[in-house]
Design a protein that fits this description.
Elements (H helix, E strand, L loop, with lengths): L11 E8 L2 E12 L3 E7 L2 E6 L3 E6 L8
Antiparallel strand pairs: 1-2, 1-5, 2-3, 3-4
Length: about 70
């Protein structure tokens, strides 16, 4: 089902996730959405399902390049 996260599909994002007293930023690409969860691709072959109720924010990931 499509929802409020459709615009973020395929984009590099940072999900701000809350679990109990923990607040964790998760970097990856959103690859799918259901009624209750989001699938985040953290690495080329590692997808993680996150409950939407745990997501407090979505931000565009801005990669940085370090030059010495």
């Amino acid at each position: 089902m499509e929802g409020g996260y459709t615009v973020w599909m395929g984009q590099p994002v940072v999900l701000r996730v809350v679990a109990g007293n923990l607040r964790v930023p998760l970097r990856g690409r959103l690859v799918s959405e259901t009624n209750d969860s989001l699938r985040l691709r953290i690495a080329d072959n590692w997808d993680v399902d996150i409950f939407k109720s745990m997501v407090v924010a979505v931000e565009q990931d801005m990669p940085t390049v370090l030059v010495h």
